[in-house]
Design brief:
about 35% strand, seven-stranded parallel β-sheet, TIM Barrel, eleven-stranded antiparallel β-sheet, 12 helices, alpha+beta
Length: about 700
């Protein structure tokens, strides 16, 4: 439904959300600078905050007056290819504020959309009388808060998102960020710059998620924080010349987004970022299949025994191109017989796919391969029989998943892209995991600069041409583009489960990710870790994962993704076959989701309805403190009887002292019943609820 109001001239403009809980005003100050403010239920969220852009050729900051305002109300729904809901409502009021400046002549449109759960706004630059090619230096978007709110954030960084989250405040932010060590490949900004998505909790108890939507043709946004004045300002990731973006007009920036509610559950349920992205551009999506997978991956992270590389003697023969003349190192797990073992395991347990890392030429000295070796995406190592494994996997009803690690040579990857995708299709691969570890080539670009943002979308679009699904790692953090390109099933773009072998993730980590990182799109976190005491990758030290075994099952619900890995080794799953039954059963695509309990960095309880059956699944996790989750079964349809299978922490379970203590029980449940469920420190529960026939 669309309701259009006529344009009008005004000195100021305002709009409210459909429910009236959010209200926004736009004006220009005495210098002709656009300013906006935001209230939620009569509580000031943002005091007047400036808007503007600055380029070498001109600036869109001062001298403006409002020449017109267009408003429209939209209420429509759309059906995702996959996701947390089978139908998403897109209900908002929109206001387009037209601005003009005379000396020099400039035009600018500020477009705002107010939903009941937040706001999105962007800059629209129409064709100008002057230059229409801009060398953008800064975006001057301000977010002026009113008090020393609580912040959940990670350091500002141009090249990595792989940090643990701090819970701090405006005034304590410098101290909190000073505790982070400098990442080996990172470009840290300064002590008061943070990344999005981030979360605030105001002193009035209002939650605000800050991020962006539909990032395309533009760099990612960080936030510079004025800790004394409780203010934030946009900080665009530059290229090596200090240029933020090269724009040709007309151009629309990404949306700046704020999800707002006084109920933490609403932050998790919000689909605002997806709603601000364009509809699906892929006409036939029947080939896009959500899936679970296992893989030749984890054994290279634990114990420092296995290796991605086929041979160790490349230094003696640096110019060699025939790998059959190299001596195998005997520690290369991406070999035919081992991959067959994974295929057999997947087929036996109904797992859809098998990922294989280290299958292709180039892994010797891979981090500096630009000098010594080149990754080739159609050249297998001598011990990896492509034809045999292709046919063997097909005979077992299992799909192999390709791996393309680029060592950040994105330019070379683009040159090989069509050849690589053709090789995949010829050999029955229809999904690929990409990686960009290292400093980006060309020109030592940053991982979240304009060039890399464009590269990531180019890969997705080209993959769609070949009907290939993509799981991207070390790529620009997601901004909802998976709606437009649903073959982009998942991304890493945060500190994932691999870090359990590199020092461990605290239990709180997965209690904050759904409030922050996952608001941009699903994550390939790699849950399913059953052996939680690990040998530290690369250093021979012990590592302790911050989780119980039961919690790992719950993560399949609390970290939703259409692409979910069962990350552990087959032999560890075979030790606990009754617990692995939940991973076999749990879907990865949902018809409905109900967030039952939530507090950021503390706990999450969610119920989800399988898209392809009437089965409900419940997952609950907690931080390092034990708690009792209250699971309200009011979501179950009335008039029916149900049986619940509960995978829970044993009474003596503890993430550090007794992580593998779990038990499984069944009980009859009914709609409206409230279950009291004990969660161990760092623990969780996973429940499958099936209607009694």
């Amino acid at each position: 439904m669309f309701l259009l109001a006529a344009a009008f001239n005004a000195a100021a403009a305002g709009i409210t959300s459909p429910s009236g809980n959010l209200s926004l005003e736009v004006d220009v100050d005495s210098l002709g600078t656009p300013v906006y403010s935001l209230e939620y239920k009569s509580s000031v969220i943002l005091s007047p905050s400036r808007l503007g852009l600055k380029a070498d050729e001109t600036e869109f900051l001062h001298g403006f007056e409002i020449t017109g305002v267009d408003t429209i109300t939209v209420d429509r729904s759309w059906e995702p290819v996959w996701g947390e809901y089978s139908t998403v409502r897109d209900h908002f009021k929109e206001m387009a504020v037209h601005l003009e400046a005379k000396d020099p002549s400039r035009k600018l449109i500020l477009r705002f959309r107010l939903f009941d759960d937040g706001v999105g706004f962007r800059y629209e630059l129409p064709v100008q009388k002057g230059s229409n090619y801009l060398t953008l230096r800064n975006e001057l978007t301000e977010f002026n808060y009113t008090d020393n709110h609580r912040l959940y954030c990670i350091p500002g960084d141009y090249d990595t998102d792989e940090y643990l989250w701090s819970e701090t405040s405006f005034t304590a932010l410098p101290e909190a960020l000073s505790a982070y060590g400098r990442h080996s490949e990172a470009q840290r900004v300064n002590g008061t710059t943070v990344q999005t998505p981030l979360l605030l909790k105001t002193t009035d108890g209002v939650y605000v998620n800050m991020h962006e939507a539909a990032l395309a043709g533009y760099p990612a946004m960080l936030l510079d924080v004025d800790t004394d004045n409780f203010s934030m300002k946009s900080h665009l990731v530059p290229d090596r010349l200090g240029v933020s973006a090269y724009l040709q007009l007309p151009f629309n920036t990404p949306w700046r987004t704020l999800i707002v509610s006084d109920d933490a559950r609403d932050i998790l349920a919000s689909q605002l970022v997806l709603n601000l992205n364009e509809p699906c551009k892929i006409e036939d999506t029947s080939w896009i299949k959500p899936m679970k997978f296992v893989g030749v991956w984890w054994e290279m992270f634990t114990g420092n025994v296995k290796t991605w590389a086929y041979s160790n003697d490349y230094l003696a023969k640096p110019g060699i191109t025939d790998y059959s003349t190299l001596q195998p190192n005997g520690r290369h797990p991406a070999n035919t017989e081992n991959v067959k073992r994974y295929i057999d395991f997947a087929a036996k347990h109904g797992i859809d796919g098998v990922l294989v890392e280290g299958w292709n030429e180039g892994w010797e000295d891979w981090a500096s391969y630009r000098k010594n070796r080149q990754f080739l995406f159609d050249k297998p190592y001598p011990d990896f029989d492509v034809d045999l494994l292709r046919d063997y996997a097909a005979s077992k009803g299992v799909k192999l998943i390709m791996h393309h690690e680029t060592a950040a040579n994105a330019a070379d990857y683009e040159l090989q892209l069509d050849r690589a995708f053709s090789f995949m299709k010829d050999n029955n691969y229809d999904a690929v995991k990409t990686g960009y570890v290292g400093a980006i080539i060309p020109r030592s670009e940053h991982h979240t600069s304009q060039w890399m943002v464009d590269h990531a979308r180019h890969v997705i679009e080209r993959a769609a041409d070949y009907k290939i699904m993509v799981d991207s790692h070390e790529a620009p953090r997601p901004t909802g583009l998976c709606r437009t390109y649903p073959n982009w099933l998942a991304q890493e773009s945060a500190r994932g489960g691999e870090f359990e072998s590199m020092g461990g993730n605290p239990p709180s980590h997965t209690c904050i990710l759904p409030f922050t990182r996952l608001k941009g799109g699903p994550m390939d976190y790699t849950p399913g870790l059953f052996e939680t005491r690990l040998s530290y990758y690369g250093e021979g030290k012990d590592s302790q994962a911050g989780t119980t075994l039961a919690r790992q099952l719950a993560l399949y619900l609390t970290l939703p993704s259409p692409l979910q890995m069962a990350c552990d080794l087959p032999e560890n799953y075979e030790r606990f076959p009754d617990a692995f039954k939940f991973i076999e059963d749990v879907p990865v695509d949902w018809a409905d989701s109900r967030y039952l309990e939530a507090e950021p960095n503390r706990y999450i309880t969610v119920a989800r309805l399988d898209k392809h059956s009437s089965d409900w699944y419940v997952g609950a996790i907690t931080d390092s403190d034990a708690r009792v989750a209250e699971i309200d079964l009011g979501f179950l349809p009335k008039g029916k009887k149900y049986e619940a299978t509960v995978y829970e922490d044993a009474p003596d379970a503890h993430w550090k002292d007794n992580p593998q203590a779990y038990r499984i029980r069944t009980l009859s449940v009914k709609p409206g019943q409230k279950l009291k469920q004990a969660l161990a420190p760092g623990g969780g529960v996973a429940i499958r609820i099936v209607e009694k026939k």
